Amino acid sequence: MKRKMLALLMTAVLMLCAVCACGEDASAEEYVISDIDFSRMDAGISADPVFYEIFVGSFSDSDGDGTGDLRGIISRLDYLNDGDPLSGKSLGVEGIWLTPVFSSPSYHKYDVTDYYTVDPAFGTNDDLAELVALCHERGIKVILDLPINHMSSRGSLFKNFINAHICHNPANIYYDLFTWIDASADKVPAGRHFTRSPAAGILYESNFSDDMPELNFDNEKAREMVLDVALFWLDKGVDGFRFDAAKYIYYGDNAKSADFWNWYIGELKKVKPDIFTVAEVWDGDGVIMKYAGVLNCFNFTASQASGIIAETANKGDVNRFTAYTESCITSLKALRADAANVFFIANHDTDRAAGYLTVASGNMKTAANLYLLSPGTPFIYYGEEIGLRGSRGGANTDANRRLAMLWGDGDTVKDPVGTTYDASKQTPYAVSDLVGKDSSIYTHYKKLLMLRKANPEIASGEYHALKLTGTKLGGFTASLNGSVVAVLHNTTQRDMTVDLNEIEDLPCRLLIDSVGAGEAELNGTLLTVPGQTSVILR
């Protein structure tokens, strides 16, 4: 009855808005008619928010030069989160990860020349400050991508380092700022890459690119420098950082690299105890766990075409996925009570998920159900919610994974320099084509975020994988403050029926909502879940 009353009330509001539109284009306003019960909704920012990664140069262009910028992001805040979770007019993300915004000669900005200044192509420091302030007003956290393992060879710090070696001056404070060995060395350390500097008579470490020399973190000045940078931006109001290439602080030495992060994060927490941090440790779970005791880490086992999320979404066994998720959470919590599970399916360094999951097959929606209706802090890659495509292919360029967001409203943002992706393979849909369409991938993502917000147990509750036998149907329960919800997923393409009484440790008997290809039905204790559909029980 409560759900029906809420639906009627929202319908009445819609009718009133239509009457009062006075000739204005009603399609400019989007409302999702839903009977979602928000009485248990998180107040303010969720304890475990959904983040949205923005590759800044490809998102939205405010000045017509073709490059995305900070003011472009500001202009899209109503799309991301309008500040009202009940409006149904925005995607509803509660965190934004900005790829590097600092001064840099490249389009991607991972080779920084000045950490204290926003690159002019993206705007100004004041623009960033305004973006952060506006996000906070709407309950959105902002984290900056901070690549400190390496920087640009064009920066003044590296030039000072080279000059110190040309002058053969070990007393110079820049002499050991970067990792180097003598040019006459017979061998370089195994597995590592060094670039020759003939003028200086040295080889400097450059594992990612000859243009990206790597700092020497045995040098006190290097440590002080990267700490000062983070403290500077924390003072400007950012909520935390994503750390690039975290396991390469000491190449091949995870123990020593983890010790660095223990020191670094400890220093930052002295200033901001609630800082949000997440690290790129691109490796298996065993290596990731070496760092997870200090800071959150992206779950690469679950991501990409070969990951367990995509595997499960493609008609896989949900019980295997939930068992894996429970195992991850148990391991994380044993290391650190506030450790977060960080699921994602793609980011700026991977092929886009819509290429291997596909929207047409329904697998994109199913994958979204699996990872967004899971505990922790999941990350959406910009454009994922519209099925944006992009893959490296044989071109050997990551620019193809960072293509321009498709708005469909005249936004002038263009693909980055070096793009070779065949435009005929791109999705034919822009945001403007999908907003307001009940069956669209965009609306699907938005409903998932609304359901997650309305049922905070999913994101932050104690996770328990349900054990179903003889079926690929699977799920979990999550309990928080005495309240319990259950989520069940059907990743196959056929309806599946289960007797709730036969599921061990399942206290939930009320069907709250379903999301996916069909509408679930509960007759007594018999629950029928359509193919590629997930349900929430309470």
Distance between the termini: 15 Å
Strand order of the largest sheet: 11-10-9-5-2-1-12
Unreliable parts: 1-29
Q: Rg, please?
A: 24 Å
Q: Strand tally, please?
A: 20
Describe the largest sheet. 7 strands, parallel
Helix content: 25-40%
From the spread of the alpha carbons, the general shape counts as globular
Range of strand content: 15-25%
Give the number of helices.
15
Report on this model:
The chain is α/β, with parallel strands linked by helices and 538 residues long. Strands 11-10-9-5-2-1-12 form a 7-stranded parallel β-sheet. A 5-stranded antiparallel β-sheet has the order 13-14-15-20-17. It contains 15 helices and 20 strands. It has helices at 2-19, 70-75, 77-80, 125-137, 156-166, 220-235, 254-271, 285-292, 308-313, 318-335, 353-356, 363-372, 431-434, 441-454, 456-460; strands spanning 51-54, 95-98, 102-103, 114-118, 141-146, 180-182, 194-197, 202-205, 240-243, 276-279, 296-297, 379-381, 462-465, 474-480, 483-490, 496-499, 511-516, 521-523, 526-529, 533-537. The protein is globular. Helix 8 links the parallel strand 10 and strand 11. The two termini are 15 Å apart.
What does the secondary structure layout of this molecule look like, with pairings?
Blueprint: H1 2-19, E1 51-54, H2 70-75, H3 77-80, E2 95-98, E3 102-103, E4 114-118, H4 125-137, E5 141-146, H5 156-166, E6 180-182, E7 194-197, E8 202-205, H6 220-235, E9 240-243, H7 254-271, E10 276-279, H8 285-292, E11 296-297, H9 308-313, H10 318-335, H11 353-356, H12 363-372, E12 379-381, H13 431-434, H14 441-454, H15 456-460, E13 462-465, E14 474-480, E15 483-490, E16 496-499, E17 511-516, E18 521-523, E19 526-529, E20 533-537
Parallel strand pairs: 1-2, 1-12, 2-5, 5-9, 9-10, 10-11
Antiparallel strand pairs: 3-4, 6-8, 7-8, 13-14, 14-15, 15-20, 16-19, 17-20, 18-19
Helix pairs in contact: 6-7, 12-14
